[in-house]
Amino acid sequence: MIYGQLLILALVIITELRVFFVKQAKKDSLVFLAPVSFILSILLIISWGLNIINIIVLSLSLIAFICSIYSLFKYLAKLLTDSYSSLSKVTSLLITILSLTAIVFAIIYAPVNLNLKKIGTTEIKENYEGNFRSGFEPVQAGSLTTATFYQYSEVPDIPVPRHNVVVLITDKRADAQSYIPYMAYLSKQGFTVCTMDFYANDLKWFNDQRDSKPLRRFFMLQQSIYNPEEFNSQENTFVFNHISECDGIITFLEKRFGPQCKYFLIGDGMTSEAVKTYATLHSNKISGYFCLDSIPEYKTPGYGCVELTDPLLANILNQKKDSDGFITKYLVLKSSEAIRKSLGLKQKPASKGNN
Asked: What is the spatial order of strands in the sheet that 135-138 belongs to?
């Protein structure tokens, strides 16, 4: 995502600086970078979702596009550009300064790069279509993705896990991306770790357009941070929906791994109560559960490993960027201890990949 943000901002800067370098009586072909940057900013939000930095990028590209409309019409009409007015140059300079500031801002709050190969784990990521009523199937060309499956394991391509699969049920103030460092490091402890992001049409959280993939997390965060009373008043709905997600992912995994496999659930924040309830009701499938928000040192329960994956959100939550991943590794340590205790397994010795 950071590379997309930087690319768009660079295009905006080139678009604005052109007014100082385009010679008289020339066609201003660089003006087409304005609509390109605006379209790319929309695609960035569709792919990665709405967040503060993406809003800044969208706003700057939109302003640059609007300011370039007259030049675009001139170019399409095959008219030559004589010169740009002083006002145009001042506006372009201002947009350029704002874009440069946004680049610095984006770099400072960029997610910490996670090298899965260095950690010693492999990732499987697959997109699916469907819903909870009919089930989920691999997405076909031209179809809408309504679920994304993530799997992390130390040994790739295991047909059937040799042990219980650990299933993370993500809080909706986060998503799978927010927990990737946690899942990657936990898989290094010898577990197969899975999760799914669901955007199916038969499980609603807002009952409006905010349920869409690009918008849901942003508005969940907005409500949780700035309107906690309204957010907490929906606890029963959250529990019900997350129980449905528990059932959906377990049904999906049973088809994938077979009926002989049992599952250990991990909850966090608004999913913890659902995980406890589902584990109690389905003890024939679920071997145990653990809730990350039971760890006192975990200061961002429900938001995931934001110190690594979303440093700007971590800052809003009064936490610092954790480039070494100390908190995430501590969550993995406590989770591994709980899982192994529940399953009667010995602790795995520490390895270089966990340092």
From this structure: 135-138, 122-131, 147-153, 192-198, 165-168, 263-267, 286-291
